[in-house]
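Audit log entry. Action: structure prediction of a protein-small molecule complex. Ligand: zinc ion. The ligand was supplied as SMILES and no pocket hint was given, so placement is left entirely to the predictor. Protonation state taken as written. Sequence taken verbatim from the request; no trimming, no tag removal. Recorded inputs:
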Amino acid sequence: MLIEQAPAQRDRQRLNRLKCEHSGAWISAVPSTHDGNDTVLRPRNFQVAIAMRLGLPVLDEEKRCSLCMQTIDVFGDHAACCSVSSDRIHRHHRLRNLVDRICKEGMLSPIMEKKGILGPVDGRRPGDVTIPIWRSNKGVAIDVAVTSPFGSHNISLSLSHARVMHKRKNTTNTTKTSKAQVSISYQ
Ligand SMILES: [Zn+2]
């Protein structure tokens, strides 16, 4: 009901993504530096994250992105998906490293960015983290995707559709390794 009455596509997208499982887990998580200082949000970052969750402006007025000169509106969406900034790559690598660490702690012998698992094909990315033995004597390649639901390509896509699009892009023909995906969507 609330979604149907939302005045703009951005609001409908925001509300739809808030329905996703675990989308609000970070709010009730107990702050802890057990896994490093990066796991605790600074107060200003927390304020911005809450404002974005509630659909409130995070800027007083529109600004121009200093990297690509695109307009950053008062909701600040562009900052999370600027293709010139390397922030998305940094976030991807940090998540990939976290998955790798969890797998190591679970003694799964993970291999990061394993080469050659897709066979002799060009332009296909390997899995970010490969676990050699997962199930039925087969391995699994875990792919981490960092996306923004408010990016121009994603604004009208449901999460499941966005996952399908990403999966198509990375479809593999390997038979020895199945592929799993970790999708992290920033709001
Ligand atoms: Zn930009």
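Audit: result stored. Confidence is low (pLDDT under 50) at residues 171-175. Residues 31 and 37 are 10 Å apart (CA to CA).
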